[in-house]
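Field log, afternoon session.

UNIT: design team B
ACTIVITY: writing a sequence onto a fixed backbone
BACKBONE:
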């Protein structure tokens, strides 16, 4: 799943996360659940890209809590926060992230 931030020129930043084998509401913690959960941040202005499972990431911590997983209504909702750092780029901290979307 991705969310984007825009300016008059188009997309300037994108945040995303992915998970495997989601079957119910649950909480993922990184790096403990790194086999099942990953997150990314792309900054098109600074040309820095971060992915929690990349080899050049010096810090990757975060949480994703799925608060609603409704297959009948095809809705997924949740809360997230994470920190990513890599050499040559700013440290990214996202707090109080939230999503609510159709699957």
């Amino acid at each position: 799943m991705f969310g984007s931030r825009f300016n008059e020129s188009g997309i300037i930043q994108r945040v995303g996360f992915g998970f495997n084998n989601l079957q119910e509401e649950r909480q993922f913690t990184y790096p403990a659940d790194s086999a099942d959960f990953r997150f990314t941040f792309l900054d098109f202005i600074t040309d820095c890209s971060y992915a929690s499972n990349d080899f050049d990431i010096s810090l990757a911590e975060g949480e994703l809590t799925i608060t609603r997983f409704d297959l009948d209504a095809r809705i997924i909702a949740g809360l997230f926060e994470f920190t990513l750092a890599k050499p040559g780029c700013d440290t990214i901290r996202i707090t109080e992230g939230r999503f609510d979307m159709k699957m």
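LOG NOTE: The beta strands are 2-7, 10-19, 27-30, 37-43, 48-51, 59-70, 75-85, 92-102.
NEXT ACTIVITY: expression trials, pending approval
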